[in-house]
Amino acid sequence: MEPSDPTRSAGAKLKELRSRLGLTIREVQDRSMAIAAKENNLEYVISHGWLTGIENGDGVPSIFKFYSLGYAYGRSVRELVGYYNVRIGELGREHANFSAPRTHLLGSAHLTDSETVTLPLRFRNDGALDNTNLLSKLVAIWGDIPVALVERLSPQRALYGYVGLKDFTLFPLIRPGTFVQIDVNQRKVLAGPHHTMEERPVYFVELRRGYACSWCEMKQNLLLLVPHPLSPVKTGQLAYPLEGEIVGRVTGVAMRLAEMAPDRAASVNP
Length: 270
What we know:
The protein has helices spanning 5-21, 25-39, 48-55, 63-73, 77-82, 91-97, 147-151, and strands at 116-118, 133-135, 144-146, 158-162, 179-183, 202-207, 210-219, 222-226, 236-239, 244-254. By secondary structure, it is α+β, with helices and mostly antiparallel strands. It folds into two domains: 5-86, 434 Repressor (Amino-terminal Domain) (Orthogonal Bundle), CATH 1.10.260; 101-254, Umud Fragment, subunit A, CATH 2.10.109. The protein has an eight-stranded antiparallel beta sheet, with no helix packed on it. Strands 1-3 form a two-stranded antiparallel ribbon. Strand 7 (210-219) and strand 8 form a beta hairpin. Helix 2 crosses helix 4 (63-73). It is elongated. 20% of the residues are buried. Mean pLDDT is 78; it is low at 108-115, 117-128, 136-152 and 265-270.
């Protein structure tokens, strides 16, 4: 079977990269054998004949051999996979289009410092953001965020939450669509008096089927979720800790104050 144009083009790019680096096929083979010995897995081995075939467009490397090529050439696996028109960096945007309908925690991906996390570039309109979410990593800017920067947010000490678009519990103090930072070391509800609404502690609470962002009060074995006086939400009452548990105290917010103005240039006909 003749090599397809994508694999032939990708193979040519791999060959060009190797030539540009001044590496022989034998040197690539030796480097791959070092990785195979370290990992005790022969799948990492790149033979002379195999690499010659790949550079001529015969087949696609396995994930193990992509790793060895990345090691030999000093390139990321993402870059080499991109030669085959597989855009790993676009995966985060695809996740944004097909998110789970329920509130959930996001696991930490094991990425290198040179890689990025792609966060949604705009809000969706299908109700996926209606409910309050608890996230393990979040920043207040959208786009491709270096993993090293995200890790500096100290996820071991704090969680990052999202107040759902239909959550008006603390409106207008905390608006729907707000992102909050949560200190997981502050889980005890502090009693008053509180001189101002801004001084009153806000807590992120885990419920049986979701989360809440609210003022809280303890009344014997009951946890009260206290809304803002101007909010349409009524005070909630939960058996503590069976029906509700404090995740932590909200220590920071990133909140939209107004809608973005439409792009005037886009409405002007050329």
